[in-house]
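Interim report to the steering committee. The following record documents the input for D-alanyl-D-alanine carboxypeptidase (475 residues).
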Amino acid sequence: MFKKIIALCAALLLALGAAAPALAEEAAAPPLSAGAACLMDTSTGQILYEKNMDAQLPPASITKIMTALLGVENSSWEDTVTMTDASVFSVPRSASHLALTPGEQLTMEQALMGAMLPSANDAANGIAETVGGTIENFVEMMNARAAELGARSTHFVNANGLDDAAHLTTARDMALITRAALQNEAFVRVFSTAEYVIPPTNKQAEARNIGASNKMMFDFTKYYYPGIIGGKSGYTTEAGHTLVSAAQRDGRTLISVVLAEPKNAAMYEDSVALLDYGFNAFTSVTLTPQELGAEIEAADAALATEEPVTLLLAAGTGVDSLQKSYQVEKSDRYGMTVRVGLSLPEGSSGQYSEVASAELRYVVPLAAASAGAGAAPEKGMDWKAAGLTALKWLGVAAGAALAIFVCLLLYVRLRYDIRRLMRRYRRRHGGAPRRMQAPRQAPRRPDRQPRPRAVGEGQGLSSAQRPLRNSARYN
């Protein structure tokens, strides 16, 4: 019995030893035959793997991801798409098409399905003319939307992806465009459809049965991928084989992009390998703001950021392997904003070295901020605003001083003119002006003296005894 137990343990150890290299190989970054590739996590935008992802290459029909995105953003399902000579005859007969004819009418939904599933170039042109008025205007819309999404190395020339020397993109840019498109429910409806029927039209009596060109969406093919959301493939002589795929597993959604594939089978094999690598070899790690800013000296400022940062690390890569970089993006007396970059040493693993970035906001308490308002200027003080304020007050003070000076000059001049006029008047009239002289008084009349009377005249006599004056007048 004891020998059997020992033999069983030995067999188990041998099995584990044989499985360990296999597990390690599964966790390693896959070798790819693609000329360029990118693997992106949609929730965070973190790039998990890259191969020449910023090399500009022709995209072929994965261009139609942008065409469909603009179609659903700028129209409704029931809008009418009327085919024109330009939209029909600009497509070579050797390229993929729906055999649409000038004057034929489809709904926008039917045109989108035709452009995305069998990659019909004439349907893509019809969408472009309906949304943009002309194909040229629509191409301008495509380039503007790409720049808005951060796809700055992309330049579109047409809406279908046919070869043109100036029609270029990158694996990173196509991942960015697809990530934005997956946030639109109408686009996902088109992107995830495997089969569709276009009913008879005004020019076509029979229905058209169409199916997706991406073999990863059909469970009867060897390239079927469980959890696949959708995808778009492409091929031209210049571009080779290209494929964009999106899949979901355990609550995570990944986007894989491969460009310049030498064979049709290779683009599926590389896409499956990339998605498996992303789902199997990475674990989710959450870092708190306090952990991110552990090395930051913020003096009296308090950390105001509360949202943690979630990132993905490849198997065998620990949090202690992360390198942090700090950059102050904004600083004032109320606090500062710091950009924290997380990266891995080059060549430390198959994972892309730039892992994540986050913003940390530090704020100064109100009391400290108020106290600091009257203190010496801080390093982050807005000197331009302070200088403008000082110049404004200097201008006000100079204006006030000038006004006072002018008033004094006017006062002195007025006094001088008044005195000169007075002197001129005295010389001409020999005295001060009348209005300047004291008022003249009337001569005083001397008091009238009583007439002297003769002694004894009328004295001692009564009124009856006094002689009447001028009695002769009455006789």
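The chain has two domains: 28-280, 284-373. The committee is asked to note this result when reviewing the revised timeline.
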